[in-house]
Amino acid sequence: MQTTMPEPVVVGAAILDDATDPTHMLVARRKAPKSLAGYWEFPGGKVEPDESLTDGLLREIREELGVDIQILDLIVAPEEAGWQLDNGMRMHVYTAVVTSGVPRPVIEHDRLEWAQLTAAAMQSLEWIPADLPIVDAILKQLGGSLAR
Ligand SMILES: Nc1nc2c([nH]c(=O)n2[C@H]2C[C@H](O)[C@@H](COP(=O)(O)OP(=O)(O)OP(=O)(O)O)O2)c(=O)[nH]1
Question: What ipTM goes with this model?
């Protein structure tokens, strides 16, 4: 009998410049695979089978950006399983702040940018298409602090 492996779950970080009064979010441009190269995304990756979502995110951010983060809030998705990605996987996105180190594109990315948390600035980036509703939800969820 053939057994199918469950799809890995993906976690991403919406890293903010400030926990209480954010104005910018760290965005990352992918280098690979070819189909995603050049698109902007939330740094993160696949959770290992023996890891919690948040432990997976802490590990991925250390590996990819060389920094430690404090995880703040879940960006609430329409379904509890998380945001639907184009490859059939699900992603959970958390806001976070850097607690130690300066983010660098160690692996996976060729550019990092602190983008202004405005609809105009976010729309000017070419996001992985599946991320667009998440970006929108972040702007809405942080709405209170964006009125400037
Ligand atoms: N990290 C990340 N992945 C995303 C986003 N949006 C999106 O569709 N994806 C997709 C791209 C990939 O197919 C998958 C995440 O895989 P990944 O390549 O980042 O995972 P990983 O770091 O664990 O890498 P690997 O072990 O597979 O090499 O989810 C996003 O905003 N961030």
Answer: 0.96
Ligand 1 touching residue 24 (CB < 6 A): no
Q: Which amino acid is at 55?
A: D
Q: Tell me if 38 sits within 8 A of 126, measured CB to CB.
A: yes
**Alpha helix (H) residue ranges in 24-109:** 53-65
Q: How far apart are CA 96 and CA 67, in angstroms?
A: 12
pLDDT tens for the 148 residues of the chain, in order: 566 667 789 999 999 999 999 999 999 999 999 999 999 999 999 999 999 999 999 999 999 999 999 999 999 999 999 999 998 999 999 999 999 999 999 999 999 999 999 999 999 999 999 999 999 999 999 885 444 4
pTM of the predicted model as reported, rounded to 2 decimal places:
0.93
Q: Is 131 in the pocket of ligand 1 (CB under 6 A)?
A: yes
Cβ-contact 40, 14 below 8 angstroms = no
110, 33 in Cβ contact below 8 A? no
* Span from the CA of 53 to the centroid of ligand 1 (angstroms): 14
Domains and CATH numbers, the chain: 9-142 (3.90.79.10)
